[in-house]
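Intended use. Records like the one below are meant for learning the mapping from a protein sequence to its folded structure. Do not use them to infer anything beyond what is encoded.
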Amino acid sequence: MSHKISMTVNGNSCTGDVEARTLLVDFLRDHLDLTGTNIGCDTSQCGACTIIMDGCVIKSCTALAVQADGSEITTIEGLANSGELHPLQQAFWDEHGLQCGYCTPGMIMAGVGLLGDNPKPSEFEIRHSLEGNICRCTGYQNIVKAIQTTSQTMEGGA
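Structure written out for the chain above:
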């Protein structure tokens, strides 16, 4: 049985017909071609599928697309503005907060969510907020540094 859903994704209205069991990550990737949201584990352990839904950071591999009906969603593709990287995306580049890049979209989305809730997080708060995101390449130090840099940049610009 198919369900018609509609939502706002990265500022654009989107509709689709999905089976009740369709995961939100699959809807984003397969129906909307937003492949920046990665599938890593399908169990909410790795965080590669992290997005922001209605202002909350969520793992889209454990949410059903029908649960997102009527929601406002931001994916990694929705962060850049007119071709200019989001400050956290730029900081990941500047601070070398990525290596293979597979976890990077989820890490950035988790960081954006943290900075939205807490514009001046401590190193402990940053590390705690990233506990649900796994990176097998970087050792996390430069990821933390990128979030710290963005916090300082955003604070300076305010």
